[in-house]
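Write out this protein's structure.
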Amino acid sequence: MVTSDSSRRDVFRQIAQRPHVDWPAYDSTPLYERSSLTALAEYLQQHSETRRSLGFDSVPDQSTLWRSWNKRFSADLRETVERTARTLLANAQNAGVSVPRDPERKLQYHNDESGPTDPDEQTVLEEAAKISDHVSRVVFPAFSLDRGEGCEIHENAYWGLQTYLGLRERLAANEGARSFLYESTRDRTPLGHAHREQIRDLSIDQVREMYRQAITRLLNEVAETEQFFRAGIVAIDITEADPFTGDRTGHQDEIIGTKEKTDEYAYQWATVQLIGNAVPIVLDARPVRKGETRLEIVEDLLDSAEDLVHVDNVLMDREFDSQHVLEMISQRGHSYVVPKRMQTSEKAQAKRLFQRNQDRYETDRKLHLGKNEWHETTLIYRRKEDSEHDDHRQYSVFMTNRGSGHLTEYGYRWEIESGYRSIKRFMAATTSKDFGLRFFYFAFACLLYSIWRAIDLLVQVELTGEYEHSPVITADNTLTLLKKETGIG
């Protein structure tokens, strides 16, 4: 057998990087359980090439595999094996390769015992109401105003009002509080100014911690479904609020320039989100301040993402094409795909490709990190389809550390912009320059968006046993149900 942990890890990493691998379809959690070990022994018996790659002279039996896992393997090696199993499953699912489970999940179909049907709208709404009730009771307790005891207005009334503000376009707290007073079933609801004061008392760190707790609870709910396992790809991006036209005095570090380098100013927020075949949940959000580096932002968001889900591939926009960011991601064991801003050498190469009428080109590149240290990456030139240009500008350049196979995954990034549009739809309106209040409104909108997409996943799985990316319930349906449920307390 292979004699060192490092050599075993090298083999596992090689296997994980293959785009399609004929490997046993195990969930990573029971990979080392007895039934799985029996299947693994059978697999090694049937696949001599893999057996030799792993260093086996003969096929070990189930008991030998069990002793190796539990007695001989170090904690670091076991973690590598589990991570590799998760990577294989994520890559297979994201590539559209069917990955069966053992045992298969037995699904209950409503009104049809023979198999799945397309549920009618009323059935969908009834199921959404039940799941919304359950999810809201799980998620919203993660938020707290820490007001002490004896308050006349129940804390859930504040979360109910905040949810209510997301029901309508550009609804501010004062106007929303007046309407909520009549539409809510509560005897007492907060006034707009009281609501803002409570939110302003929360620090940004408190808001982020509560958000992560809420998302953890939400992920625990959807993780019980087989369909949610299709994770592994996360996207990190920055969005900005509408341009700020008022006086920035005293807020220049918070109301900063726009990403397009215009003469406008805006608040900016960064997020890390599940994309690809996974349900698009915003795992974490943070504000962007003047002077913060892209490396700091990506490190912070990746720390959160890694605590919540298995991360395999990181997609980012070209504003993150820093060699230090790419090196940090590689050091964490992740792959990445990032567009590169075209400098003189890239433009010259694109011109040569255009002259040769060549659609695609790959080349290795070393990026200088300083002190004679380098980051090795691969540049991939790709001609855009239906480009508006008739010269070398038809080409885009991407950087990746795992080969061109990951480039197709970059198309998943369109979900980020689509998600941001929905998130901003859920935000309460405000003219306040209070940074904490502004960030809370954005973070709460991210939570409402994530709840909507999680509920949609749960409803689809419950009714059909499948998950399609196109939602079967609308955001308004979900928000209306949540508004009702958050009024319970």
